[in-house]
């Protein structure tokens, strides 16, 4: 049976899925994280393990294409190195960044915009086989509207209340409880010890309070508007004003947080294009199938 393999390799897991030529899933395996920028050797080992697992008991010659989506693939010569490392498997190979793979999965190879907002954020567009981006510059210089952005605003809110001698909001009290602290100065010390992921995890605490705390609700609304602004910039860059544009949403913040989504939709409603929202129906790994449908088995 002829088949293709899609691999979505991220910061927490590597998911490899085998599809037949009609796009039906045949096998799914999961190994550890695949972000080679975090740990090159372990990330590579997890990717290779996933590939080996799905190729076991299959004819390599029947593999029409393997598409791997990996964060950071465009930086530091990583793509060239990885092509050499994976040549061992002797299958047609395409390397994309993880956002491009998700774009193919959600928009099924068609032109449009993908908004990714989880721990970080980025907006990716494709038109006439050309890629465009806005954002994705990391937590120091970007990640607007992301989980990290929401967590950072929550901490900043607590500091602002301290500076202005305002009554603590429910959100600030939640932060004290969450970290088992009692003062703002303790919170500052703790915040500077947190990783990016730990700050992003505060977005869940903000979301849980939003229905009864206007301060928390305002932060989520601001995040949604920021994501809308990023999309508007991308539409301008792609010259898609006054057109119908497909918009896909990917990531926990923009998929699951209703206040973020409401603010995002409201912002785009007043922009100079008509959005057509596309629902996520499958793993990003299915981008391999849609890539094959559109491009065939071209290696790159």
UniProtKB/TrEMBL annotation:
**Keywords assigned by UniProt?**
Coiled coil
User: Superkingdom of this entry's organism?
Assistant: Bacteria
- Residues forming coiled coils: 185-212
* A matching Pfam family: BcrAD_BadFG
Q: Does the keyword Coiled coil apply?
A: yes
InterPro entries membership: ATPase_BadF, ATPase_NBD, Euk-type_GlcNAc_Kinase
Q: Could you tell me which residue ranges the ATPase BadF/BadG/BcrA/BcrD type domain spans? A: 5-274
Protein name per UniProt:
ATPase BadF/BadG/BcrA/BcrD type domain-containing protein
């Amino acid at each position: 049976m002829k088949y293709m393999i899609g691999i979505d390799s991220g910061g927490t897991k590597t998911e490899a899925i085998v599809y037949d030529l009609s796009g039906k899933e045949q096998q799914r395996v999961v190994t550890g994280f695949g972000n080679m920028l975090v740990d090159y050797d372990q990330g590579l080992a997890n990717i290779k393990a996933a590939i080996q697992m799905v190729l076991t008991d299959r004819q390599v010659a029947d593999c029409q294409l393997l598409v791997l989506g990996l964060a950071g693939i465009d930086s530091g010569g990583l793509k060239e190195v990885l092509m050499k490392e994976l040549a061992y498997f002797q299958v047609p190979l395409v390397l994309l960044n993880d956002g491009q793979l998700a774009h193919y999965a959600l928009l099924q190879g068609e032109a449009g915009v993908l908004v990714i907002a989880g721990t970080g954020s980025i907006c990716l567009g494709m038109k006439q086989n050309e890629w465009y981006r806005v954002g994705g510059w990391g937590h120091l210089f970007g990640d607007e509207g992301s989980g990290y952005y929401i967590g950072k605003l929550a901490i900043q809110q607590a500091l602002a209340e301290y500076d202005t001698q305002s009554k603590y909001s429910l959100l600030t009290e939640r932060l004290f409880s969450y970290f088992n602290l009692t003062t703002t100065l303790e919170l500052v010390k703790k915040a500077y010890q947190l990783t990016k992921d730990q700050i992003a995890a505060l977005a869940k605490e903000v979301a849980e309070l939003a229905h009864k705390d206007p301060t928390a609700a305002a932060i989520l609304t601001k995040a949604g508007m920021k994501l809308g602004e990023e999309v508007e910039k991308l539409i301008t860059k792609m010259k898609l004003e006054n057109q119908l544009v497909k918009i896909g949403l990917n990531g926990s913040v923009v998929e699951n947080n209703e206040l973020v989504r409401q603010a995002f939709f409201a912002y785009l409603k007043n922009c100079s294009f008509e959005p057509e929202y596309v629902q996520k129906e499958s793993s990003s790994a299915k981008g391999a199938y849609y890539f094959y449908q559109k491009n065939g088995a071209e290696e790159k």
